[in-house]
């Protein structure tokens, strides 16, 4: 757990104690005869709360200062990492636009260009859209692309379709090959945009790698459990039929049932293990944005990893 998160947790607990103590003073005090002792305890508790709050605020300021410095250093940190590569940017409905802007700003310094951008809509990740997505996957499949028979979930099948249509395929190294023709890509793109599943720009060429940028949902509230599970399946299908995917989020998605936590915990069989996927859980910080670019360069060659500040990360920053 990060220092910031622990500070918040301690502060919350301390606030709860303080409120309980205040209640005791004003309600029970006149009858207990211990008001002076409770008052002293309350003062001590308030001081502890103030101390934890000050530490948390200082930690936040330190992170902000590091990010400000990092913005200046980030282009050099990714320089040439994706030389002459094409990147596909995919965003989810809950994405923070600042995160997307920051990642896009590092693609050119890395020596790459954007092959296309895809914005997934709510309908794409909804339970109600699942059958239609499976139908599109089955009827618009480019020649030579196969859908899994072992995993027929909507997320897996549409991920496999989009991986085959919009990504190159590589067995490792720099020998990635196109999997679809221009007309085949157009059919897939038009079917999904006209069905109001996503927005798309570009996609005239297949990309060497996809960066999926999502928000920070922990997958616990409302329909978020289904969404997180769908996005896990989608990412694995995309990585299975494509040259590589980096899934990047804010920290919350690496907690509980969030998509990053699920990807890191996924052990669904041999097919999933073949998917070339790396995860980043701090895309709202410069370190995570740098990791997204560096991890993209690595995943093309078959090297995967988990980067960030949350449980399940194996390194803070991709090397």
Automatic annotation (TrEMBL):
One of its GO terms (cellular component) is membrane. It comes from the Bacteria. One of its GO terms (biological process) is copper ion homeostasis. This is Putative secreted protein.
């Amino acid at each position: 757990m990060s220092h910031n998160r622990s500070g918040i947790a301690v502060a919350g607990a301390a606030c709860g104690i303080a409120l309980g103590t205040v209640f005791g003073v004003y309600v029970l005090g006149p009858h207990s005869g211990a008001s002076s002792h409770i008052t002293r305890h309350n003062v001590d508790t308030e001081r502890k709360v103030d101390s934890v709050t000050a530490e948390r605020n200082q930690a936040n300021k330190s992170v902000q200062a590091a990010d400000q410095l990092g913005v200046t250093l980030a282009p050099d940190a990714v320089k040439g990492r994706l030389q002459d590569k094409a990147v596909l940017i995919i965003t989810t409905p809950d994405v923070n636009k600042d995160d997307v802007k920051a990642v896009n700003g590092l693609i050119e310094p890395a020596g790459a260009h954007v092959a296309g951008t895809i914005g997934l809509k709510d309908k794409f990740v909804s339970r109600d859209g699942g059958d239609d997505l499976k139908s599109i996957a089955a009827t618009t499949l480019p020649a030579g692309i196969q859908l899994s028979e072992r995993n027929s979930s909507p997320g897996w099948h549409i991920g496999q379709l989009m991986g085959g249509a919009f990504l190159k395929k590589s067995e490792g190294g720099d020998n990635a090959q196109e999997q679809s023709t221009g007309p085949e890509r157009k059919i897939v793109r038009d079917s999904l945009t006209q069905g109001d599943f996503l927005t798309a720009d570009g996609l005239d060429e297949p990309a060497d790698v996809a960066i999926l940028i999502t928000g920070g949902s922990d997958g616990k509230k409302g329909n978020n459990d289904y969404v997180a599970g769908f996005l896990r399946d989608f990412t694995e299908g995309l990585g299975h039929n494509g040259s590589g995917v980096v899934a990047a989020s804010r920290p919350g998605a690496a907690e509980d049932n969030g998509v990053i936590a699920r990807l890191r915990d996924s052990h669904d069989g041999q097919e999933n293990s073949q998917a070339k996927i790396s995860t980043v859980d701090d895309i709202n910080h410069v370190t995570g944005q740098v990791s997204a670019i560096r991890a993209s360069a690595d995943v093309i060659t078959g090297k995967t990893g988990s980067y960030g500040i949350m449980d399940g990360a194996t390194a803070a920053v991709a090397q």
